[in-house]
Write a structure and sequence with these properties.
Chain B is mainly alpha-helical and 494 residues long. Chain B has 21 helices and two strands. Chain B has one domain. Helix content of chain B is 75%, strand content 3%. Chain C has a two-stranded antiparallel sheet with strand order 1-2. The chains are: A mainly alpha (102), B mainly alpha (494), C mainly alpha (683), D mainly alpha (477).
């Protein structure tokens, strides 16, 4: 049996990589994917911790489940916003600097 | 009077009148003005009644109202009045009334103005009767807002700069003072009740190091307000830009709050620190006297000159307070009152001059006494009162603070006489240039009508009477202050 | 009438006149003069009553009644009236002189637009002198002392249309105020150390208080006297004070203003005696006496000459006080009050008649102004110290006190030099007075003049009479009434040889003046500048004195004061005004804060937004490249609803992720830094 | 017990039902769209009333619910009332703007986010906290983006979304680490136990966990290094939404932070404490100083929000009952003051940046609006007798009372700096009331009545809390 610590390390590594990805990717969608990956890494960590601690209340699993739920909602929201943005600006020449300044 | 919460009524009255002012239908300026005068008169009458019922010989607080209020933050509802505060309360009600009368001819934003005036009065009176640290601070800060607007709305050309500078400068001082009050709470009896804090301090329960820290914090707040050299630089700007009424109340009452703070909080609560710093404070007072006078000597703007004269005169207050002798404290309160009366008068006069000549430049003003004899004579009177001519009230305060200063610091206090001579110099120079001089071609021309109106003359009458009466016979006034001053001086052991 | 009330009425009556004239002055018009005179007459009557009482009081105070003016802790200040021999005698002199001057002024000021105002202030002036003299408390004395200063300011600057009058009034007020600050400090010291300011108690202060303290206090008090009595070096205001109307000068130089300084020292005499301050008083007095006389020598303005003579005569009094000649000084104060007011009033009459103040433009006035010339002569003789006029006796008393000083306060070694200096000064005095007299009243007539109105002449005549007989109040050895009044039981001895000596010194002075005048008239073409000095024969003695006088004039002490005191003060003030610390604050705090704010917002704008923009621009470049590569694909993608993800990515690559990623990075980076700092702090 | 639970959570149930009803009706009958605002308002008012009733029956209803996952206590009630009233104001402010277009989305999302806030406040474990945060955050991302005309709003929403999600996920990882090192996620008693019970390794992990947790929470409350999004988003989003997200979520999270950090926190975890102190100080200093240089009023308010977060953190660092009372009071003050200020900006027009110069002469032309703005500004600046002063005073006093006088000093001094930019607006508004030597400011279209009501309510709240509310809030809590 694989010890829980391995999953923890895996979770940490994935989280870190996804974070670096989020910080460096130029594509919005890629950024969204990185966020998803980060969430998954956290979910993995929760599961592993739950097992490692032998928590009978299944806190880790519950948390992991909710992580999934939230990330689903999140990707939905994210894509919707991206789409909306694209629609608004699609047909006109975009003033990107305006955007940068907020 | 007995049985009534006299002081609550005193501080609530202007508030209610202020609200009533706002409720009046807009457009009827006359009604607002009448209400303004009636309201301030009512407050004044009430003050006089309190003064009448005040028993002079007793050193302690009178008309005390004390109640639990907000125990979570250690706040109590505690009002009281003693020989230190009574003259200043009287001053505040008197000057507000006179300002209301003077403003009879105000044309714009009358409602706003009178509301601010009443609000200002709430703060001014409140500071002097509050015996709880938080209430004290609240009233202290309440004053800033109406004054900010008075300067910012009715001020001169650079009013925005001046109003913001005034607000921020004094706020810096007062927030640090607030920290001091909090430290009094924390290291002290866990209440903001100033009487309790004073008891705690006199029992020697504040550590020496603690006292020094708290004193430093409080000092900054009071020093900016007084203003003590070198924290005075907000004053000339504020005065030059402020409208007449603003200047009168600023110089007449607001500056006194600082001196009062020293006497009400620093001295009784922190005797060790007060003694420790007393020489330095006295020295700052002396420097202020000389410095203010020296800078006033070459001012080109009449109002700025009077403003710097305030720095100099308040130096005497500081000297008297620092001495912590009976004479010094008596003199300091006396000087505060006198300065309120006399400088208030001077600012009224500068306002009248400005209204007629549309300039405050000393070089352009000439021959006031030939054009408007009454105004000229009163300017001269006020100037002589201000330069401390004996037989007028300014002298009494100066003499007593000087005497107290000498008792405490010896010859160092004597340096301040340089300031007295310089004060005479700049006032005489002003009189020579502006009042007792023939008008020339390039001098400013008085816009008709020149003669003083009744609403302008009326405020001057009580001020002149007080300046004269207190100079000739100060005993009734001193009898009020003396017991309180004696008790305070006894704390320091002087 | 109780005697306390009588004493109080003396100052109250003119004060009432002052109030009356201020309020109703305009309605009263020229009648206001008579209101003032009426009040003054009442004061005079009261003063007479007081003197009569004093004469029978045998050294006890006539009146001492007080009320509590102020309580300062354990110190009580009681104001009130205190009249003894000294105050009663001075009071009477002041009342008489003032009354005469008032009457004179009704004529002199006739037609002036501010006539009521003049009499109002004049009343207050007199009132304050009365109150000063009757003060029971040193602080009260000081109060009226200063009120008098105020009045002198107003009166000297009465004709403020004239530049010189305005300057002179300020000068007078400020100069005396400099001295007054010493007075103020002296009062403070006395109150702090002796514990009271009650004059009768203070006079016994020597019993309770250490001598050094009293010395300091007395020297400080003396500063005030120096200022008021125009002693060297605070005399500079006195000559300029001539810019006021002549009645003002007449009163100011004789009975009121300048007399106050001498009175102060006389009042506090017991304290001065104990403290050891008297030698200083003597020194300052004799210096002023000599100095004033020398300055008078070359002065050509009739009133300024008299002004310097005042300084000189007051110096005499001070010197006498310093040598223990208390009675002599008061005696001279009284006689001087009469003859100096006489001289000023006559000079005013001369000016009134000839309309010039320069003696060089006068001459031969005795023909047109007969009465004036006679009374002027009486005054001049008195001032010169020619017997039997009043000035002779009092000056003689002073010389006696110097020759044989009071052993308690000074030695003969100190007294004799002073004596000779005083004698020489007496001769100089006689000289310049008579030179002036001859120039004004004798010789050829230079301009048309007319005699003054009766209102002016009558007081002059009365004063002339008084000047002639006033010496009788203290005839040494025969009728030492004043001495008895002031110091009961002490008999002054008369030195006959000394009388002779002083009279002959005065006569010498008159003679030299006459000789010089003669030579001047002979060479009438040279009238400018130095009075034909080189032609004065027999002037081996006078020549160097003239040189000194001229040198002093050239030296111009005003100029020195201006350069050493006033200029630096003004410069400092100007410097402070310009370099107000506000500027420093601005530089340090406000600039610092705004620089900080600027810097931080630059961090926001340049570092953060800059980084963002940089990346954004890089993105733009890439997009531009993309556009070049496949412009159609992008356009197509944009136009297609919900176009391909690649197209969206392309779009947003340019725009968005740069910002977001950077912000996220900053969050992490700053957060970590702060966390590590916190970790360090926690340790 | 069941009945009790229904009663205890009736306000939330009402809101949930209203939300569901709005979605269904909105989808089925488009004609109901204009009435969504009415429904929301009604639901909020009912919920407020119920919350009041619940509070009145505190003795029987207060307690732990749902397997100790949620707690009903005075703090929860406080949150409910504050969120509800703020919600009412926001609805009024949005009355016309989102009255018909996007009504279902707007009000639906809005109610959802309010629910999220209650979850945050009442939650007793990290999971509830996380769920609450997401429930709050996801709708607000969308709300920011919903704007009739402004294209930038979507960009702002997107930016907010990406950064917000990033922060949430990082926080989530922190929660995982917390769970790992502590073995529990519940903070019914105290999340942070006495550190002596923990092994060194766990304490080490705990440091990371804490850092991540604070990063996530700090993002939501715009504490210093995590605030970068706020000026951009505040300036880009629609004003009423910005008013909302600048206040209510911040309040909720602050209350949650106060619950999480137990009594052992201030003594046992110096690193964490110093971390918070550093963040608080930097927030106060940085926020106030940078706000001083802003010209766009919304950006200025964003930075002032950063500074106010710093002030709130003072209470959290100090800990203890009095600090809690102080914090609660300050939150009320901040909420109404900030909401009001944004509403005034809203009233001045939606179409472009509102700069400080736009306030020139406002008092002369729109005296009531100027008066309201003055009220909010002076309250935010902490001038007595307005509410802001007592809020700040209580905060600083609690800091002094807990031995942090220097922290209070920083707060006091930065308050003075803050007065600088608040007064700049005030002096612009009132500067030419009498003397008219200044250029005309911005002209304003008619201000809709609901917004007026909202303004009046906000002014009243500010004044009443200040003058009368002190004993009420500070004494009762």
């Amino acid at each position: 049996m694989v010890p829980p610590i391995a999953f923890l390390i895996l979770g940490a590594v994935v989280f870190l990589l996804a974070m670096i990805g989020f910080l460096t990717r130029r594509s919005l969608v890629q950024a969204l994917m990185c966020l998803e990956l980060m969430t998954s890494a956290v979910a993995l960590t929760f599961l592993a911790l739950g097992r490692a601690l032998g928590d009978r209340s299944m806190t880790g699993m519950v948390f992991a489940t909710f992580c999934m739920v939230i990330s689903a909602a999140e990707i939905g929201m994210g894509l919707a916003l991206v789409l909306l943005y694209f629609r608004k600006h699609g047909s006109t020449s975009t003033d990107d600097l305006d955007l940068m300044k907020g | 009077m007995t049985g009534l919460p006299a002081l609550t009524i005193l501080v609530a009255m202007p508030l209610l009148f202020g609200v009533a002012t706002l409720l009046l239908p807009s457009g009827n300026d006359r009604a607002v003005k009448v209400l303004g005068i009636v309201g301030t008169s009512a407050v004044f009458v009430w003050t006089v009644l309190i003064m009448g019922a005040f028993s002079t010989g007793a050193p302690g607080m009178q008309f005390v109202e004390v109640r639990e209020w907000v125990p979570v933050i250690g706040m109590t509802y505690h009002l009281g009045i003693d020989g230190l505060s009574l003259p200043l309360v009287f001053l505040a009600s008197l000057l507000t009334l006179l300002c209301a009368i003077y403003s009879w001819r105000l044309k714009e934003q009358v409602k706003t103005f009178f509301f601010l005036l009443f609000l200002l009065q709430v703060g001014m009176i409140g500071v002097f009767i509050a015996l709880d640290g938080i209430m004290f601070y609240v009233f202290w800060e309440i004053v800033l807002v109406p004054m900010f607007f008075m300067i910012g709305i009715w001020g001169g050309e650079r009013r925005r700069y001046a109003s913001v500078k005034f607000f921020i400068y004094t706020l810096i001082g007062s927030v640090v003072m607030l920290l001091g009050l909090m430290l009094l709470y924390m290291w002290g009896p866990k209440t903001f009740d100033l009487v309790e804090i004073a008891k705690w301090g006199q029992a020697g329960k504040f550590g020496m190091q603690q006292q020094l820290w708290i004193y430093g914090c409080l000092f900054l707040g009071f020093a900016v307000k007084v203003p003590i050299f070198p924290f005075h630089t907000w004053l000339p700007d504020a005065h030059v830009e402020a409208p007449t009424v603003g200047s009168v109340l600023l110089a007449g009452v607001l500056l006194k709050m600082g001196g009062y703070g020293f006497l009400r909080i620093s001295l009784p609560a922190l005797p060790y620190a007060f003694k420790y710093f007393s020489f330095s404070l006295g020295l700052l007072g002396v420097i202020g006297i000389v410095y203010g006078a020296a800078v006033a000597l070459t001012q080109k703007d009449l109002k700025k000159m009077v403003a710097y004269s305030s720095v100099s005169h308040m130096g005497f207050v500081v000297l008297g307070i620092a001495s912590a002798t009976v004479a010094g404290i008596d003199g300091a309160v006396m000087q505060m009152f006198n300065h309120g009366i006399i400088t208030g008068m001077l600012f009224f006069l500068v306002g009248m001059i400005y209204e007629r000549y549309h300039t405050k430049e000393i070089a352009r003003l000439k021959g006031i006494v030939t054009t408007i004899p009454v105004l000229g004579v009163i300017v001269a009177f006020a100037s002589f009162a201000s330069l401390g001519l004996p037989a007028l009230s300014g002298f009494v305060g100066e003499f007593m603070t000087l005497f107290g200063g000498y008792q405490a610091f010896g010859w160092v206090a004597g340096i301040s006489v340089i300031g007295i001579v310089l004060t005479a110099a700049y006032f005489l120079r002003m009189l020579q240039q502006c009042v007792f001089s023939p008008p020339t071609e390039d001098s400013a021309i008085c816009e008709m009508p020149c003669e003083l109106r009744a609403t302008e003359f009326l405020p001057l009458v009580p001020l002149m009477s007080f300046a004269l009466f207190l100079g000739l016979y100060p005993q009734p006034f001193l009898a009020i202050i003396n017991p309180a001053a004696t008790a305070l001086a006894a704390i320091i052991g002087r | 009438m109780p005697v306390a009330l009588t004493a109080a009425l003396v100052p109250i009556l003119p004060a009432a006149a002052f109030v009356l004239l201020v309020v109703f002055g305009r309605r009263l018009g020229e009648r206001s003069g008579w209101v003032a005179i009426g009040a003054l007459a009442g004061s005079l009557a009261c003063a007479v009553v007081l003197l009569v009482r004093a004469l029978s009081a045998e050294g006890e105070p006539v009146v001492h009644a007080t009320f509590r003016w102020a309580t300062i802790g354990r110190f009580g200040l009681d104001f009130g009236v205190y009249v003894d021999g000294l105050s009663a005698s001075v009071l009477l002199m002041v009342a008489i002189v003032a009354l005469m001057v008032f009457v004179y002024a009704t004529g002199y000021m006739h037609g002036d637009p501010r006539y009521p105002w003049f009499f109002a202030v004049f009343s207050l002036f007199t009132c304050s002198m009365f109150a000063l003299v009757t003060s029971a408390n040193l602080l009260q004395l000081m109060v009226f002392w200063e009120v008098m200063g105020l009045c002198s300011y107003l009166l000297i600057g009465f004709w403020f249309e004239r530049e010189e009058a305005r300057r002179a009034s300020i000068k007078a007020f400020l100069t005396t105020r400099v001295g007054d600050m010493g007075f103020l400090l002296g009062v403070v010291v006395l109150l702090a150390r002796v514990g009271t300011l009650d004059i009768p108690v203070l006079m016994r202060a020597g019993e309770t208080t250490a001598r050094p303290v009293l010395l300091i206090a007395c020297l400080l008090l003396f500063c005030g006297a120096v200022g008021k009595s125009a002693q060297f070096p605070l005399h500079i205001w006195l000559p300029d004070a001539m810019a006021g109307p002549t009645p003002v000068s007449g009163l100011l130089h004789s009975a009121t203003m300048v007399a106050a300084g001498v009175f102060l020292v006389a009042r506090m005499y017991p304290v001065f005696e104990v403290s050891g301050a008297l030698p200083f008083v003597a020194g300052a007095g004799i210096a002023s006496a000599v100095f004033g006389a020398s300055l008078a020598l070359t002065e050509t303005d009739i009133k300024r000459t008299l002004a310097y003579s005042t300084m000189s005569q007051l110096g005499y009094m001070m010197a006498a006080l310093g040598m223990g000649g208390y009675v002599a000084a008061v005696f001279h104060l009284i006689t001087h009050g009469f003859f100096k007011s006489l001289l000023f009033l006559s000079a005013g009459s001369v000016i009134h008649g000839s309309e010039t103040q320069d003696v060089r433009e006068m001459g031969g006035l005795a023909k047109t102004m007969k009465i004036t010339s006679i009374v002027y002569l009486v005054g001049a003789l008195a001032l010169a110290g020619i017997p039997p006029l009043a000035g002779f006796f009092s000056k003689d008393a002073i010389l006696v006190s110097m020759w044989a000083p009071d052993a308690k306060v000074a030695t003969q070694a100190l007294g004799h030099p002073l004596f000779f200096a005083a004698l020489a000064t007496a001769m100089l005095t006689a000289f310049y007075m008579f030179r002036q007299y001859f120039m004004v009243f004798t010789g050829p007539e230079q301009r048309h003049a007319h005699e003054s109105p009766r209102a002016m002449l009558v007081p002059m005549v009365v004063l002339a009479v008084l000047t002639s007989v006033a010496g009788a109040i203290n005839l040494p050895g025969l009728f030492p009434k004043l001495g008895e009044l002031l110091v009961p039981g002490e008999v002054e001895n008369a030195l006959w040889w000394l009388m002779l000596l002083s009279a002959s010194a005065a006569a010498t002075g008159v003679y030299i003046a006459w000789e010089q005048n003669r030579s001047r008239l002979e060479g009438a073409h040279d009238r400018n500048g130095t009075f034909g000095l080189e032609r004065v024969y027999g002037s081996v003695f006078i020549q160097p004195v003239f040189a000194v006088s001229d040198f002093l004039r050239r030296l111009n002490i005003d100029d020195i004061v201006q350069r050493t005191v006033l200029d630096p003060v003004v410069a400092t003030s100007d410097f402070l005004r310009r370099m107000d610390i506000d500027v420093v604050y601005m530089a340090v705090f406000v600039r610092l804060t705004s620089a900080l704010a600027e810097g931080l917002s630059r961090v926001d704008v340049y570092v953060i937004d800059g980084a963002v923009n940089l990346i954004g621009r890089a993105g733009l470049r890439i997009a531009a490249a993309l556009r070049l590569v496949d412009i159609r694909a992008i356009d197509g993608g944009v136009n297609a609803v919900g176009g391909g993800t690649a197209a969206i990515g392309g779009w947003l690559k340019r725009l968005q992720t740069g910002v977001v990623a950077n912000y996220a990075l900053f969050m992490l980076l700053f957060g970590i830094i702060i966390f590590y700092v916190a970790k360090g702090l926690a340790r | 017990m069941y009945l009790n639970a229904w009663l205890a959570w009736s306000p939330e149930i009402v809101l949930t039902l209203a939300w569901a009803g709005m979605l269904v009706c909105g989808a089925l009958w488009p004609r109901t769209h204009p009435y969504m605002r009415h429904a929301t308002l009604a639901a909020l008012l009912i919920a407020l009333g119920l919350a009041g009733l619940v509070a009145a029956n505190a003795h029987s209803l207060y307690g732990l619910y749902f397997s100790e996952a949620a707690k009903l206590d005075s703090v929860t009630t406080f949150g409910r009332l504050l969120f509800g009233s703020a919600g009412v104001l926001v609805v009024l402010a949005s009355w016309d703007v989102h009255g018909e277009e996007n009504a279902v989305e707007f009000f639906g999302l809005f109610v959802l986010s309010l629910l999220g806030e209650v979850v945050i406040v009442s939650g007793q474990n990290l999971l509830m906290l996380f769920l609450g945060i997401e429930l709050l955050a996801l709708p607000t991302y969308a709300l920011i983006a919903i704007h009739k005309t402004r294209a930038r709003a979507i960009a702002a929403g997107l930016k907010y979304f990406l950064l917000g999600m990033f922060a949430s996920v990082v926080m989530l990882y922190g929660m995982a680490l917390l769970y790992g090192s502590l073995g529990t996620i519940s903070y019914v008693h105290a999340l942070f136990p006495d550190p002596s019970h923990l092994s060194a390794a766990r304490l080490g992990v705990l440091q990371f966990a804490f850092f991540f947790l604070i990063l996530g929470l700090g993002f939501k409350v715009t504490a210093f290094p995590f605030h970068f999004w706020s000026p951009d988003v505040y300036a880009g989003g629609s004003t009423q939404v910005v008013a909302y997200i600048s206040t209510v979520p911040k309040v909720a999270i602050m209350l949650a932070i106060f619950r999480i950090l137990g009594p052992a926190f201030s003594t046992g975890y110096p690193i964490a404490k110093w971390f918070l102190i550093a963040i608080a100080v930097l927030s106060m200093v940085y926020g106030n100083i940078v706000a001083l240089m802003q010209d766009d009023v919304r950006r200025m308010l964003a930075y002032s929000g950063v500074a106010n977060t710093g002030y709130m953190l003072i209470a959290i660092i100090a800990g203890g009952a009095d600090s809690q009372a102080a914090l609660l009071f300050f939150l009320v003050v901040y909420t109404f003051g900030n909401l009001g200020a944004f509403f005034v900006v809203l009233g001045m027009g939606e179409d472009r940046h509102i700069t400080i110069g736009d306030f020139d002469g406002l008092a002369r032309r729109y005296p009531v609006l100027a008066l309201a703005m003055g009220c909010f500004l002076f309250s935010l600046a902490g001038t007595p007798p307005l509410a802001g002063f007592f809020g700040k005073f209580a905060l600083f006093k609690s800091a002094v009372a807990h031995g942090l006088p220097l922290l209070a000093l920083v707060g006091l001094v930065t308050t003075v700096i803050s007065v600088g930019y608040y007064l700049k607006i005030a002096s612009n508004m009132y500067g030419d009331l009498v003397q008219r030597d200044l250029p005309e400011g911005r002209a304003i279209e008619r201000i809709p009545v609901p917004l007026r009501i909202a303004l009046v309510l906000a002014v009243t709240a500010t004044l009443v809390t200040g003058v009368l509310g002190i004993p009420l809030f500070l004494g009762a809590l």
